[in-house]
Design brief:
Chain A is an alpha+beta fold. Chain A has 13 helices and 10 strands. Among the domains of chain B are: about 45-75; about 80-145. The chains are: A alpha+beta (about 400), B mainly alpha (about 160).
């Protein structure tokens, strides 16, 4: 790479030897933040993958209906971890920022490939955290489908992260072992065996103070947002886009009846529930007939993919009772269809195990009151361990598959 | 000899670990890129713009501003008070960033009939969190003020 010796950027701005002077910018800082981000990104990836599989279950995978609150937990962790990663990623990128201006820009093929993999890693990481934050606020400033883009960019980012870990694992080990006194940016040399915090010139935050600040902000962000899923902390949820106790009948709504365009059909006296598909005797029931069936109650969480969740007491008919009423023997998977037209979440599949679960209800009531329109009146699906978007509202058809 | 600017002190030898990780990570990346091409075929360039744009906006807008503010604090604030103020500024920036959609009402605008989205007054909410941050900074500053200044070794007191 002799060429980089001959061609050099002028020693101005970030290319000056003494451009970056903070003593917090040492390999040990980068290593500790890197490990924390590795843990948080793999946690987000695993929980995100689970959420994806729960919504688009492949034929080879069966996702259990129990524990009932599993999705609530994994998705709560997904959003909380993503939010907590924001200050850590910012601190990490700040720590390694001088490397962006490193000269020579690469030394050999391995170094070139490693640096190229940083573009999808950094771009992907910033994109995932930003798009996730926007999505939990129902803000979509881009022209593409959010869940699909967030999901596939997550694979690209995790690929970049695997490459990065392979490239940095020995630096990280070394930095943790010998105190990581190697500076990033400043050319001030530090004796290899000395304690960095003593020997390095102190300019602003020390390494410990930077780490304490980054992890402290991470904790603060968690404290003021996690109440959207963890009810005891709901009063502290100052930066959360939802409160689990705010909304009609005391809990949030994702899509209103008006936004879904179902107000008239849901209120109509002509409302009917059909059971069709592979059934011995297709049936059509009006509301009085549904109310006349045996009513059951279940205490179940509703857990939105956007990270808020809340447990409510639901009451209605068991899905399995309805199928038996239509002459379906044994347990079968069904597709539940909404009055809502033309949207991807207008129907959802309930697999055979979930259908047979005694808590899987078509609910008429919540907390002792008739469901309000925005919560899916006259009839909504509620079942254990299902993403919120699959707790279909304004149910009008059950298709046996 | 040409001095090297900000080079890693010991340029890393690419060991077998790197090449294995490159194959695995590269495969995962290729799977993700294939997924974007197959599932977002009509908006591939938009997704690419947003992902690459995220890196560029971070590296050439957000990071320089952050570094610039840190530099300005280094120039304008005495060494003694610098760390707490830098920490306070960083916490404030993150708080405002996370509260930004709520402050601007970006989600609310799209669902005017759904009062359960962004139900709080986010100016008050963000203001409260920022207030708590600076209260902690103030305590940190007071603690520093009360601590005796370290005596520089090179200038022993007469």
């Amino acid at each position: 790479m002799r060429i980089f010796g001959a061609i050099r950027p002028p020693a101005v701005g970030p290319f000056r030897d003494d451009a970056f002077t903070s003593s917090a910018r040492i390999e040990r800082t980068a290593a500790i933040l890197g490990i924390a981000l590795g843990v948080s990104f793999f946690t987000c990836f695993a929980t995100g993958l689970y959420s994806h599989l729960a919504q688009y279950p492949p034929s080879w995978l069966h996702l259990s209906a129990r524990p009932a609150g599993l999705y609530r937990f994994t998705q709560g962790v997904h959003i909380a971890t993503g939010l907590a990663s924001i200050p850590l990623l910012f601190a990490k990128l700040w720590t390694v920022f001088p490397k962006l201006f490193a000269w020579p820009p690469f030394q050999g093929v391995a170094s070139l490939l490693e640096r190229l993999s940083l573009l999808p890693l950094v771009g992907g990481a910033v994109f995932l955290l930003f798009s996730g934050l926007a999505n939990i606020n129902l803000w979509y400033p881009w022209p593409f489908n959010f869940p699909i883009a967030h999901y596939w960019v997550a694979w690209i980012t995790i690929g970049g992260l695997v490459v990065h870990i392979g490239a940095k694992i020995s630096t990280t080990r070394a930095a943790l072992r010998r105190g990581g006194a190697d500076t990033i940016g400043a050319t001030t040399t530090v004796e290899p065996n000395s304690d960095a915090s003593v020997a390095a010139p102190v300019n602003g935050m020390s390494r410990r103070q930077l780490l304490a600040t980054a992890f402290g902000i991470s904790g603060l962000v968690t404290l003021v947002t996690v109440g959207q899923t963890y009810a005891p902390l709901r009063k502290l949820a100052l930066l959360a886009p939802r409160r689990p106790d705010v909304g009609p009948q005391g809990f949030p709504v994702n899509r209103t009846a008006r936004a879904a365009g179902v107000t008239e059909a849901a209120r109509s006296a002509d409302y009917r529930l059909e059971v069709t598909g592979r059934v011995p005797k297709p049936i059509t029931l009006d509301l009085d007939q549904i109310r006349a069936m045996p009513q059951h109650s279940a205490t179940l969480p509703i857990a939105c993919v956007e990270g808020w969740s809340t447990t409510q007491d639901w009451e209605g008919i068991r899905l399995r009772d309805l199928l038996a009423h239509a002459g379906v023997g044994g347990s079968r998977a069904v597709r539940i269809e909404s009055l809502q037209q033309h949207r991807s979440y207008r129907s959802s599949v309930v697999d055979a195990e979930q259908v047979s679960d005694p808590d899987t209800l078509l609910a008429l009531r919540v907390n002792g009151e008739a469901l309000e329109l925005d919560h899916g009146a006259p009839l909504r699906l509620i079942g254990p361990n299902r993403p919120g978007v699959m707790q279909t509202k304004w149910v009008t058809r059950v298709v046996v598959l | 000899m040409t001095p090297s600017t900000h080079a890693d002190p010991a340029p890393e030898r690419a060991g077998i670990t790197f090449w294995i990780a490159l194959v695995i990570g590269g495969g995962i990346m290729a799977f993700g890129i294939r997924g974007v091409l197959d599932n977002l075929s009509s908006s591939v360039t938009d997704v690419a713009k947003w992902v690459i744009g995220a890196a560029l906006i971070h590296d050439f807008v957000i990071a320089p501003i952050a570094v610039g503010i840190g530099w300005a604090v280094g120039r304008g604030v005495s060494m003694r008070w610098r760390a707490p103020i830098q920490a306070g500024l960083m916490a404030t920036a993150i708080t405002v960033a996370i509260g930004w959609p709520g402050l601007r009402g970006y989600g609310r605008h799209l669902v005017p009939d759904n009062p359960s989205v962004q139900p709080l007054n986010y100016a008050t909410a963000v203001g409260t969190v920022v207030g708590i941050i600076w209260a902690v900074v103030a305590i940190w500053l007071i603690a520093r003020a009360l601590r005796p200044r370290p005596v520089p070794a090179t200038h022993p007191r007469k």
